[in-house]
Amino acid sequence: RALEAGSLYLVDSGGQYLDGTTDVTRTVSIGTPTAEYRDRFTRVLKGHIALARARFPTGTTGAQLDGLARQFLWQAGLDYDHGTGHGVGAYLNVHEGPQRISKHPSQAALEPGMIISNEPGYYKTGAYGIRIENLVTIVAATGIKGAERPTLAFETLTLAPIDRALVDEALMNDEEVDWLDAYHASVSERLAPELAPWPDVAEWLAGAAAPLNRVPA
């Protein structure tokens, strides 16, 4: 169907390269988003951030983490019917196991070096869809004082702005805002030098990756 003002555009993209495979999804607003769009998008974003910030002991499976990404949708009686994350190959399959993050049990524990997607979403039948997808890699967690067990974390790999127009800052806490601002700062720092030949694109990136305007407490 045609894109029109007041709608959302969900694009799931990626590519194959000699040194890896990419998979990324962004949802952008065409014109001014409705309050419902912003609410649903922000709930998806909060779940995305919760998973991105997770720390978990070695031996943890994706099924044990899946609810982190869904919790804010569940609070509103909402959900999505696909997995939260799938393994990604290196110049092989975009969907490649054994690792996954899903409601469905998996015997495969998440291990350092694995690459997996973080892609919660929300879909209103016949109306619109929302998904935010980054690829992450599993790494050893650092900076945990008093940790008694080996602990893992996610390192986000994908560098692409998240549509700030769809974020309802009133639903975000300070830690979530800090995460999004830090993510966008990283996107700008890494990509801006590559955009020197295209000043119009560099100007767009500067705006798209700007910090959020915090809502006073």
From TrEMBL:
User: What Pfam families is this protein classified in?
Assistant: Peptidase_M24, Peptidase_M24_C
Which InterPro entries does the protein's record reference? Creatinase/aminopeptidase-like (IPR036005), Pept_M24 (IPR000994), Peptidase_M24_C (IPR032416), X-Pro_aminopeptidase_P (IPR050422)
Q: Provide the GO MF annotations for this entry.
A: hydrolase activity; metal ion binding
Report domain Peptidase M24 C-terminal positions.
Answer: 151-212
Q: Which UniProt keywords apply?
A: Hydrolase, Manganese, Metal-binding
Decide whether keyword Transcription is in the record: no
Peptidase M24 domain sequence ranges: 2-138
Q: Which GO terms describe its cellular component?
A: cytoplasm
Q: What is this protein called?
A: Peptidase M24 domain-containing protein
Species the sequence originates in: marine metagenome
